[in-house]
Amino acid sequence: MNKQELEKSKELARLYYAAGDTQDVVAKRVGVSRNTINKWVSEGGWDVQRAAKTITRKEVVNKMLQKINERLDSSDWTPDELAKAAAAIEKLDKQTNLVTIIEVFAQYNNWLCSRMRLDPELTPELVNLMTKYQDIFINEHSNTMVEFK
Questions:
Q1: How far is CA 62 from CA 48, 56, 82, 94, 126, in A?
Q2: How does DSSP assign 17-47, residue by residue?
Q3: Which of 65, 131, 52 is nearest to 44 (CA)?
Q4: Which residue in 34, 46, 79, 92 has the fewest CB atoms around it within 10 Å?
Protein backbone atom coordinates (compact mmCIF):
# COMPACT_ATOMS: atom_id res chain seq x y z
CA MET A 1 0.00 0.00 0.00
CA ASN A 2 1.53 3.34 -1.04
CA LYS A 3 1.44 6.46 1.13
CA GLN A 4 -1.63 7.94 -0.60
CA GLU A 5 -3.60 4.69 -0.25
CA LEU A 6 -2.54 4.42 3.38
CA GLU A 7 -3.75 7.96 4.11
CA LYS A 8 -7.06 7.24 2.38
CA SER A 9 -7.44 4.03 4.42
CA LYS A 10 -6.62 5.93 7.58
CA GLU A 11 -9.26 8.58 6.84
CA LEU A 12 -11.88 5.94 6.06
CA ALA A 13 -10.96 4.13 9.26
CA ARG A 14 -11.41 7.36 11.21
CA LEU A 15 -14.84 7.89 9.66
CA TYR A 16 -15.95 4.33 10.38
CA TYR A 17 -14.66 4.61 13.94
CA ALA A 18 -16.38 7.96 14.40
CA ALA A 19 -19.62 6.37 13.18
CA GLY A 20 -19.43 3.85 16.01
CA ASP A 21 -17.78 0.77 14.52
CA THR A 22 -15.47 -1.22 16.79
CA GLN A 23 -11.75 -1.32 16.09
CA ASP A 24 -12.07 -4.94 14.89
CA VAL A 25 -14.82 -4.03 12.42
CA VAL A 26 -12.91 -0.98 11.20
CA ALA A 27 -9.77 -3.06 10.65
CA LYS A 28 -11.69 -5.60 8.55
CA ARG A 29 -13.52 -2.95 6.51
CA VAL A 30 -10.39 -0.97 5.74
CA GLY A 31 -8.05 -3.95 5.32
CA VAL A 32 -5.44 -3.19 7.98
CA SER A 33 -4.54 -4.90 11.25
CA ARG A 34 -6.33 -4.30 14.54
CA ASN A 35 -3.01 -3.06 15.98
CA THR A 36 -2.79 -0.43 13.23
CA ILE A 37 -6.29 0.81 14.03
CA ASN A 38 -5.46 0.89 17.74
CA LYS A 39 -2.34 2.95 16.98
CA TRP A 40 -4.30 5.37 14.77
CA VAL A 41 -7.01 5.77 17.43
CA SER A 42 -4.42 6.56 20.11
CA GLU A 43 -2.24 8.88 18.01
CA GLY A 44 -5.13 10.72 16.39
CA GLY A 45 -7.27 11.23 19.47
CA TRP A 46 -10.13 9.49 17.71
CA ASP A 47 -11.85 8.62 21.00
CA VAL A 48 -12.25 12.32 21.78
CA GLN A 49 -13.47 13.04 18.26
CA ARG A 50 -15.94 10.16 18.51
CA ALA A 51 -17.31 11.49 21.79
CA ALA A 52 -17.55 15.03 20.42
CA LYS A 53 -19.51 13.81 17.42
CA THR A 54 -22.68 13.27 19.38
CA ILE A 55 -24.13 16.62 18.32
CA THR A 56 -26.30 16.36 15.22
CA ARG A 57 -26.49 18.75 12.28
CA LYS A 58 -30.03 19.64 13.37
CA GLU A 59 -28.75 20.60 16.82
CA VAL A 60 -26.04 22.78 15.25
CA VAL A 61 -28.65 24.57 13.11
CA ASN A 62 -30.89 25.06 16.16
CA LYS A 63 -28.01 26.51 18.20
CA MET A 64 -27.13 28.84 15.33
CA LEU A 65 -30.74 29.98 15.10
CA GLN A 66 -30.80 30.65 18.85
CA LYS A 67 -27.64 32.76 18.60
CA ILE A 68 -29.06 34.67 15.64
CA ASN A 69 -32.26 35.31 17.57
CA GLU A 70 -30.30 36.61 20.58
CA ARG A 71 -28.26 38.97 18.41
CA LEU A 72 -31.34 40.12 16.51
CA ASP A 73 -33.03 41.01 19.79
CA SER A 74 -30.03 43.15 20.71
CA SER A 75 -29.87 44.71 17.20
CA ASP A 76 -26.21 43.75 17.16
CA TRP A 77 -25.93 42.49 13.56
CA THR A 78 -25.30 44.09 10.24
CA PRO A 79 -27.34 42.93 7.24
CA ASP A 80 -24.17 41.35 5.80
CA GLU A 81 -23.59 39.28 8.97
CA LEU A 82 -27.20 38.15 8.96
CA ALA A 83 -26.97 37.12 5.29
CA LYS A 84 -23.79 35.13 5.97
CA ALA A 85 -25.40 33.35 8.93
CA ALA A 86 -28.48 32.51 6.86
CA ALA A 87 -26.27 31.13 4.08
CA ALA A 88 -24.34 28.98 6.58
CA ILE A 89 -27.57 27.56 7.98
CA GLU A 90 -28.89 26.83 4.49
CA LYS A 91 -25.64 25.08 3.56
CA LEU A 92 -25.73 22.96 6.74
CA ASP A 93 -29.34 22.09 6.03
CA LYS A 94 -28.67 20.96 2.44
CA GLN A 95 -25.36 19.18 2.65
CA THR A 96 -24.29 15.96 4.21
CA ASN A 97 -20.77 14.73 4.55
CA LEU A 98 -19.27 11.28 4.41
CA VAL A 99 -19.64 10.79 8.17
CA THR A 100 -23.40 11.24 7.85
CA ILE A 101 -23.54 8.74 5.00
CA ILE A 102 -21.59 6.21 7.05
CA GLU A 103 -23.89 6.82 10.03
CA VAL A 104 -26.95 6.17 7.86
CA PHE A 105 -25.42 3.00 6.43
CA ALA A 106 -24.56 1.81 9.96
CA GLN A 107 -28.12 2.41 11.16
CA TYR A 108 -29.48 0.67 8.08
CA ASN A 109 -27.20 -2.33 8.64
CA ASN A 110 -28.29 -2.55 12.28
CA TRP A 111 -31.90 -2.48 11.15
CA LEU A 112 -31.21 -5.21 8.58
CA CYS A 113 -29.56 -7.40 11.21
CA SER A 114 -32.52 -7.07 13.55
CA ARG A 115 -34.89 -7.62 10.63
CA MET A 116 -33.20 -10.93 9.73
CA ARG A 117 -35.06 -12.58 12.61
CA LEU A 118 -38.37 -11.72 10.97
CA ASP A 119 -37.57 -11.99 7.27
CA PRO A 120 -36.16 -15.27 5.95
CA GLU A 121 -35.11 -13.59 2.68
CA LEU A 122 -32.57 -11.50 4.60
CA THR A 123 -29.53 -13.70 5.02
CA PRO A 124 -26.12 -12.85 6.48
CA GLU A 125 -24.70 -13.30 2.98
CA LEU A 126 -27.12 -10.73 1.55
CA VAL A 127 -26.35 -8.24 4.32
CA ASN A 128 -22.61 -8.76 3.79
CA LEU A 129 -23.07 -8.17 0.05
CA MET A 130 -24.96 -4.93 0.71
CA THR A 131 -22.25 -3.85 3.15
CA LYS A 132 -19.63 -4.57 0.50
CA TYR A 133 -21.36 -2.22 -1.94
CA GLN A 134 -21.83 0.42 0.76
CA ASP A 135 -18.07 0.28 1.37
CA ILE A 136 -17.40 0.64 -2.37
CA PHE A 137 -19.74 3.65 -2.49
CA ILE A 138 -17.96 5.23 0.47
CA ASN A 139 -14.53 4.60 -1.05
CA GLU A 140 -15.59 6.16 -4.34
CA HIS A 141 -17.11 9.23 -2.65
CA SER A 142 -14.63 9.72 0.18
CA ASN A 143 -13.46 13.13 -1.06
CA THR A 144 -16.84 14.58 -1.98
CA MET A 145 -19.85 16.14 -0.38
CA VAL A 146 -23.35 15.04 -1.32
CA GLU A 147 -25.85 17.85 -1.75
CA PHE A 148 -29.58 17.34 -1.32
CA LYS A 149 -31.85 19.84 -3.06
A1: 23, 10, 15, 14, 39
A2: HHTT--HHHHHHHHTS-HHHHHHHHHHHTHH
A3: 52
A4: 79
Chain segment 44-64, per-residue pLDDT in tens: 888 877 765 656 667 777 777
Q: What's the distance, Cα to Cα, between the start and end of the chain in Å?
A: 38
Distance between CA atoms of residues 130 and 126, nearest Å: 6
Q: Is 147 helix (H, G, I), strand (E, B) or coil?
A: strand
- The whole-angstrom distance between residue 94's C-alpha and the CA centroid of its chain comes to 15
In angstroms, rounded to a whole number, what is the distance separating the alpha carbons of residues 137 and 101?
Answer: 10
Instruction: Read off the pTM.
Output: 0.45
